[in-house]
Each structure stands twice: as structure tokens, then as C-alpha cells.
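WARN retry 2 of 3 for item q-0093 after timeout on previous attempt; input resubmitted unchanged.
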Amino acid sequence: MTENRDRATIGARLREAREYRGFSQEDVAKYLGLSRSAISLIEAGTRRVDVIELRKLAKLYESSVDELTGAEAPKSTEPNSIKLVARATADLSPEDRSEVLRFAQFLRSRKAAGQE
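OK item q-0093 returned
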């Protein structure tokens, strides 16, 4: 029973890391040489992820195996998160980027006013 729970926890962490980095399941599948459905099963905790796959995923997600398995707390990703926001908005239209900027300014002003 604990093995299934551990697999589900690792799968959820892998999904979160993939989404945080902006990869699709198809992107990850190609990187690992697996099918997209295999990635889906791993993230659902139904399929085991082997150590070689886990190492490759840690490299792809710019993380450590210990962070992905929960053995170690995630390191601060502050500088990387800025890059991720920039990458996520790069393909948006100028109007949509303007909206994202306005929202960021709103959040900053709300924080400055102590309304977090």
C-alpha cells in the first residue's frame, strides 16, 4: 500500500515539475524515448519510473532526484521562475503580454499595500 502511495506522490511531483517547466507530456516522452501514455501512467503513479528515467527527468527539470522524490526540500527557484515567466509569455501576442504585465503590476501594488 505504501509503495502505491509513494509512486503516486512521486508521479505528482514529476507532473508539477513538468508543468512548472512548461513541458508537455509529449515533450517529456520524446526526451525519454517513451510513449506519451507512459508519461501519463508515471505521473498517475500507475507505472514505476526507473532510476535512469528519474535521473534524466531531474536533468530536464533542472532539479535533483532527491527533490523529485521528496527526500530533499526543493531549492529556491526564484531566478529560474523569472526565466520561466519570460519563456511562457514569449509566444503571446503583444496585447496579451501587455495584460500579463498589467497583472504583475497589480500584484506588486497589492503586495506593497499589504493586501497579500
